[in-house]
Structure formats: C-alpha cells, structure tokens
Amino acid sequence: MKKSRHSQGYILILVGKEHHLADQNGYALEHRYIAEQMLGRRLDKQEIVHHRDHNKKNNHPDNLEVLPNRAHHCRAHAKNDISKRKPIDSDNKRITCACGCGARIMKYDKYGRSRDRKLGHYAKWMNADEVKQLIFDRNSGVVWSELEIKYGRPARSLRRIVSGKRCCADNSARIK
C-alpha cells in the first residue's frame, strides 16, 4: 500500500476515495484502519485509537488500543505521564519561587505534581514599577493593542495583571 505522513505525525495509507475512512484524496489514518481490521467492524466516530507506546508511527496491532471516547483517552495518557510526579522515595523539599518574589514553596503539590513557582506567580518579565506604569497607562485610556506592543506581551496577560488576578515579580504591586 502507498503510504504518506499526516501533518500531526500519523501514517496515512491509500485506501481509495470510496472507503469510509478515506479523506478527499483517498488516504486514511493507518492506525484507525488497522484497529477496524482487529475488531472486525467499523469504528464509531467517538472511538479513539490509542498508541500504547505513544509512538504515532508504531501501528502494530499489539500497540493499538481502541478506547470508547476522548475522556478514556485522556485518562490513558494521564496514567502513563508520571515522569513529572514526585518519586515515591523522595522528600518534598522547600524551594524558592522562580518568579523572584522570594517565597518558599514545596517542590511538589498535594497531587505529587512538580512546580517551580507559587500559584499566581509568573516569571520575572515585569517588576512592580512596570505594573504600576501598566495600570496608569490603562487608566489613562491607552488601548490594549498599544499596551501589547509596549510591554511585548499578549493583552490577555496584561488584563490579568490589571484586574489583580496576577501579581508582579516582587508581589508588591498586586492589585486588591
């Protein structure tokens, strides 16, 4: 069979335009085609074919698993992605917040997820004086598009600072 590569890394096979899995050019995702052959039936639209080893190019039947829906697929990935979780035998050490505020936090949260900054803190791209200037600029009527250019950040990030949902690097200009 003639093969090609999908833009997201999956392997496409030429099955002909009349095949139910085919796109407008007559190609189908190989893993879905193989899964149907394994099951002996068509896949439902909501069914997801999961690559057990997370290698999109490995379409061996032993590596494929048909899951009933996207929620099950997300759980399959969550179970396997423990590399960033706290190792069972390690201590949960205190670290300094990466935003530069000086706060001491636990390296892993209560779910065992690694973190490097306190909730609501972000990297040092804006200090307290810059936050105050941003608030002044916004209150003076400067539009978000101009503020994006001036501060080099998306308006969404700047809005969060002005609204008080984010703090600056040294925490002193947090809006109440």
Largest sheet at a glance? 3 strands, antiparallel
Order of helices and strands: EEEHEEHEEHHH
Estimate the helix proportion, in percent.
Answer: 25-40%
Question: By helix and strand content, what is the structural category?
Answer: alpha+beta
**What is the β-strand count?**
7
Low-confidence stretches at least 5 residues in length (pLDDT < 50)?
A: 168-176
Shape annotation: elongated
Radius of gyration: 25 Å
Question: How much beta, percentage-wise?
Answer: 5-15%
Gap from first CA to last CA: 64 Å
Structural summary, described in words:
This protein is of the alpha+beta class and 176 residues long. It has 3 domains: 3-80, no CATH class; 84-120, no CATH class; 122-176. Helix content is 28%, strand content 14%. It has 5 helices and 7 strands. It has helices spanning 30-39, 70-80, 128-139, 144-151, 155-163; strands spanning 3-5, 11-14, 27-29, 48-51, 64-67, 94-96, 104-106. Strands 1-2-3 form a 3-stranded antiparallel sheet. A two-stranded antiparallel sheet has the order 4-5. The longest helix is centred in the last third of the chain and has 12 residues, at 128-139. The chain is elongated, with a radius of gyration of 25 Å. The N and C termini lie far apart (64 Å). Residues 168-176 have low confidence and may be disordered.
